[in-house]
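> @MW can you paste both from yesterday?
MW: sure, first one:
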Amino acid sequence: MDKKIIIAIVAVVLLIGLGVGGYLYWHNQKKSEKTPETNAIEKAGETANQITEEATKGVLPSIQTNPLENKPDVNPASQANPIKDIKTNPFD
């Protein structure tokens, strides 16, 4: 029985050690992802967004306008029942 307990304790210690080691490795890899190339790409993306905003300033229509606001009602289902306005319940 003692041998099984020792094996279990060693396995738990190894698992904890692997978990801590994996976390430290992942944490160091995450820090090293920020390279000068990555920063240059991010700056290029920001510059592209600024150029796009400057180029389209005053050219695009306002988002507040709704072109379909005054559209006609062409739904045939709304005109399917010609007697829907007739009252049929005498207790109303």
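MW: second:
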Amino acid sequence: MTSGHDSFALLLAHEYTDRSIAGFGSRALKGVDRERFLALEEANRSVAAEKKLQFHIAKLHYHVNFYHFGSILGRYGVECREEKVAWYTLGGESLGLGDEVKLKFNFLNPAMETQSQFWQKPYGSSDSNGYLGNEGPEKDSVYSRFAIVAWPAVDNVEFTMKFASLGTAFETLRVQRPVDTATLLKFMDLAITKLADIDNLLAERRKLDVWNGSYKFPPLISTATCQVLCQLLQECGNSTLVSVFFSNFFSRVKEKHAVVLDIAKLVRKFAWGVIGKALLEAPICVDWNQDDIYVMQTTLAVVRALERGQAQQDLLSFAVGKAESLPDDRLISSRSLEELWRLVLSDSDDGILSTLSRKFERMNPRLSAPAVEIFSRYLKR
């Protein structure tokens, strides 16, 4: 298979468990599955490097819940559906679940099975429930089957990003270091496109299932993936790509406090005049847990990791702006109040100090007592 050609998937005929695949990988295959896979491996060994395949094991899982159409016998509509693919290496290492996108596999069909035979028992089953209180009858269908999936080895990162997860793809890219600017930009662009596809899919699901809270927020990027990206960006040395990262990826990192040191390294390495605007304008909040308090705390953590300079001043000013917008009682009760005052008093210019001071001057004196105590304690030092 040459570069640019599509992938293929070979559904396994026998049943397997997650435990057996994770424990033995391709060595768990038996019977006709083993014969077919060994034939693929043998053929793969005999071709040139540019035509070799990369193999993975995938568990395809599809769950649909149906509701009954009133009095129409045997008629059901889809209430909710869940599609997911779990990925494994041939050695059995779990690569986690793939991202939630619409996937179309190119299935090989050596046994000439029909579409219904692909998912009949033991690979699929349906259970029906009668009327339960005010609830009408429902039908629950679950389909699950393992497959060998292959794609061109020369395009391994690209196909991993398409079929598996962004995190797995960027980790695969990291292993191939050094990575040049053009290559990193290519995969960041592909990731941005995939994130947009996931956003669109979640929007479709929200319309169909308004009660499901899991569709409410945009897809998140893990701490590990963010750290891998930061490492690649530092080694690549291109400030434009850092701005792309802040504008398109950073807002989706849920546990931002866990990547503070990684962000500080980027700020120290690259010209603040080039990357600063993208960081300050990056939407930080992605769910209800990340309000202005969270933004202020995260920003202060970055400020604390930086040396005095323009970047530190701009970020501190940004944090004070968030503090200024908070309700007085929430700011006073924040665990970051003392750190906010400490950084402003020790590292800020007069403008930042004046902005924060005015916030407390307008407060009810009973609320501002903790701030006065912090201020007095700092002056005594």
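> thanks! The radius of gyration is 27 Å.
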